[in-house]
Amino acid sequence: MAPFSSVFLGVWGVFVVILIKESTPVSWEEWWTYDGISGPAFWGLINPEWWLCNKGRRQSPVNLEPTQLLFDPNLQPLHLDKHRINGVLANTGHSVVFAVENDTRHPVNISGGPLSYRYQFHEIHLHFGADDRIGSEHTVDGHAFPAELQIFGFNSQLYNNFSDALHKAQGIVAVSLLLQLGDLSNPELRTFTQQLDKIKYGGERFDNVTNSGVTVRRGGVAINLAKTII
Ligand SMILES: *[C@@H]1O[C@H](CO)[C@@H](O)[C@H](O)[C@H]1NC(C)=O
Ligand SMILES: *[C@@H]1O[C@H](CO)[C@@H](O)[C@H](O)[C@H]1NC(C)=O
Ligand SMILES: *[C@@H]1O[C@H](CO)[C@@H](O)[C@H](O)[C@H]1NC(C)=O
Ligand SMILES: *[C@@H]1O[C@H](CO)[C@@H](O)[C@H](O)[C@H]1NC(C)=O
Predict the structure, then answer these.
(1) pTM metric for this prediction
(2) What ranges make up the beta strands (E) of the chain?
(3) 10 Å Cβ neighbour count for 164?
(4) Nearest bound ligand to CA 118?
C-alpha cells in the first residue's frame, strides 16, 4: 500500500499548489482548519509566522486534564455586566463572531474571578461542528463538547482598544463556555442562532444584532462562573 499512498500525496500536493496560484491573493488567515493537513498539528508548519504553534508549550486548543487541576478555594466569581449591547454578527469562515459596535457607549465589563484588571467585552466567537460530538475548540479529558462560546475582552485599564492590547502583557482575556445539548433552547443563545441563516457563507455579516445576554450556569470543569449574563 505504501507506493499508493505516496502517489496520492504527490497528487494532493500539486492540487494545493495549483489552488494557491489560481486564486490570488490567498491569505494565510484563511488556510488553517481544525482537522487534517491544515489542522492544529500543522499550524506551526504552514506559516512560518506561526512557529510557536509547533514549539510552544501553552498553545490553544487546550485539553484540560481534570486530574491535573488544583482547586483554588480563594477564586471569586467572574463578573460580567448584564446590559444589552449591539453589534455585528459575521461568518469568518472559521467561526461565527459577534463583535460589539465600535462606538459603543456603555461597554460590558468583565472582572473578578482570577482577573487582576477590568476588561472590556469586545467579541464572542461561537464554535460548533457539522456533528454535535465535535463542536468545541477545547476539550476536557479528550472529550469535545457540542459547541463552545468564547468571550473576548481587552484590558481597558492598561490599553485603549482591542487591537492595541492584542500583543501586550495582560492585554486580552478569553472566557470559554463549553455548551451541552439540552431539551429547552436557550433564549439568549437563540439571539445568535436565529440569525445564522443570514450568514451562511464565509465573509457574510449581519449588522443589526442586539445580544440580550448569554446565561451561563455553574458547572463544568472549565467554567467557574456563577449565573452570569452579559
Ligand atoms: C470596527 O472597526 C474596524 C476597523 O475600523 C472594522 O474592521 C470592524 O468591522 C468594525 N467593527 C464593527 C462591529 O463594525
Ligand atoms: C465599565 O468600564 C468603563 C471604563 O472602562 C466604565 O466607564 C463603566 O462605567 C463600566 N461599566 C459599568 C456598568 O460598570
Ligand atoms: C487603538 O489604540 C491605538 C493606540 O492608542 C491607536 O493608535 C489606534 O488608532 C486605535 N485603534 C482603533 C481601531 O481605534
Ligand atoms: C434593527 O432591528 C430592529 C428590530 O429588530 C428595528 O426596529 C431597527 O429599526 C433595526 N435597525 C436598523 C439600523 O436597521
Answers:
(1) 0.75
(2) 63-64, 78-80, 85-91, 96-100, 109-112, 119-128, 139-140, 143-144, 147-155, 172-179, 205-211
(3) 13
(4) 2
Catalytic positions are 159
Domain count along the chain: 1
103 is a domain residue: yes
State the ligand closest to the CA atom of 159: 3
**Residue 56: what pLDDT?**
79
- Ligand 2 atom closest to residue 157's alpha carbon, by position in its atom list: 5
* pLDDT per 10-residue tile (average), the chain, 230 residues: 37 33 53 79 82 79 91 91 85 87 88 94 90 89 93 96 93 92 81 83 77 40 26
**Residue 226 domain-assigned (yes or no):** no
CATH of residue 110's domain is 3.10.200.10
Which residue lies with its CA nearest to atom 14 of ligand 3?
A: 161
Atom 8, ligand 1: which residue's CA is nearest? 102
Q: Are strands 139-140 and 63-64 parallel, antiparallel or unpaired?
A: parallel
Residue 24 inside a domain? The answer is no
Q: Is 104 near ligand 2, meaning CB less than 6 Å away? A: no
pLDDT at residue 110, as a whole number = 94
Residue with cell 476536557: 140
Q: How many CB atoms lie within 10 A of CB 108?
A: 22
Taking the centre of ligand 2 as the mean of its atom positions, its distance from the CA of residue 172, in whole angstroms, is 17
Find the domain containing 203 and state its range: 62-211
- Closest Cα to atom 7, ligand 3: which residue? 164
CA of 210 to the centre of ligand 4 (A): 9
CA–centroid distance, residue 215 to ligand 2 (Å)? 21
Residue 218 maps to a domain: no
